[in-house]
Amino acid sequence: MFVLLIVSLPLFAEDEFLKFGDFEQWITRHYKESAVIGGKRKTILEVGPTSTWPEGEPYFNKGGSPWATSNVYAKVSGVVKTNASVYRDTHDGRGYCVKLVTHEEAVKVIGIINIRVLAAGSLFTGEMKEPIKSSKNPMSNMNIGIPFTRRPRAVKFDYKVTLSDSPDRIQTGFSRVTKVSGRDLCEVVVILQQRTEDAKGNLSARRVGTMIARFDRSTGSWVNDREFPVRYGDISREKDYRDWMGLISGERTFYAYNSKGKLVPCPEEGWAPADALPTHAIVKFDSSHGGAYIGSVGNTFWVDNVRWVY
Asked: Are the C-beta atoms of 13 and 153 separated by less than 8 Å?
């Protein structure tokens, strides 16, 4: 089951893969973590042209890949640490796919660090700014969205969902672990925006198109070639609208690079007319829906063959 806005689609449509959206090519990254936390050599992956990244170096998108992940290299107070919550997996003999997993990362250094951080698997169009230097305000490390000026009828992809059995979620961070009511769900966010920049470099956006879906039960097996329609204009008065489909601002605001090369907030300040053209597209898959450091260990979301439908 999932919740989304539904409209009828034409019988015949044209599919267009997002670049590297078949997930057959991956970039391998190697890092040696600091000796104070064990000094292990870790391997993490990114979606892009098959290659090996220079060892120990911060990652930036390669080969025109539009995809970034929550797999990151962090260097906080001189301590090198990695996180892996996005993996390459196989899709029932049909090649590779993406596997997003919610898990806990524990870092213990006697007298210095002793934290548990819940990390969700996230795959999104954009870039991650590395190395990560702080766990505060994770959005400020993410350039979310890519230039895009078309109006697709829908987004199509294959997926499989396994949800945790827990009826509630947890929230972690530098404070104690707390319970958050409500089951953890996997989520897909597809947003088309018109972005503008003022003379001071401040960004803002109007929402052009919306497709946001949450999956509230496990699928058991793959669901292939599923189309999710994109709705245009102000959807807030539609009968199947939910508050989590609304404009994104406040603490949830996505960040993007302005023309000065600075990563700044880009709040959504209104709905664009239904016939508007976008300037940017956000496509984001998450194994947990609640925001930073909130979720349930074990939530797993497989995704493959991401396409626009025209």
From this structure: yes
Residue of 105 and 190 predicted with greater confidence: 190
pLDDT single digits (tens) 238-282: 999 999 999 999 989 999 999 999 999 999 999 999 999 999 999
The set of residues, in sequence order, having a beta carbon less than 8 Å from that of 205 and lying 6+ positions away, is 193, 194, 195, 196, 266, 267, 268, 269, 280
Helix (H) or strand (E) holding 191: strand 186-197
Exposed (0-12), middle (13-18) or buried (19+): which is 250, by Cβ within 10 Å? Answer: exposed
Q: What's the rounded Cα separation, in Å, for the pair 121 and 70?
A: 6
Asked whether 151 and 16 are in contact (CB, 8 A), the reply is no
Tokens of 73: 């290299």
The owner of tokens 């947003």 is 191
Residues constituting the chain:
310
- Taking alpha carbons only, the member of 151, 149, 188, 148 closest to residue 274 is 151
Q: Which residue has the tokens 């966010």?
A: 189
Give residue for tokens 């989520």: 187
Q: Does domain 13-309 have CATH number 3.30.70?
A: no
- CA–CA–CA angle 266, 269, 274 (5° rounding): 110
pTM comes to: 0.93
Show me where the domains of the chain are located.
13-309
What span, in angstroms and rounded, lies between the C-alpha atoms of 84 and 44? 6
Q: Does residue 145 sit in helix, strand or coil?
A: coil
Place of tokens 């058991």: 220
As given in the structure block, the two tokens for residue 21 are 């959206």
DSSP letter at 269 equals: E
Q: Tell me how far apart the alpha carbons of residues 215 and 213 are, in angstroms, rounded to a whole number.
A: 7
Residue 9 pLDDT exceeds 80: no
pLDDT in tens, 39-86: 999 999 999 999 999 999 999 999 999 999 999 999 988 989 999 999
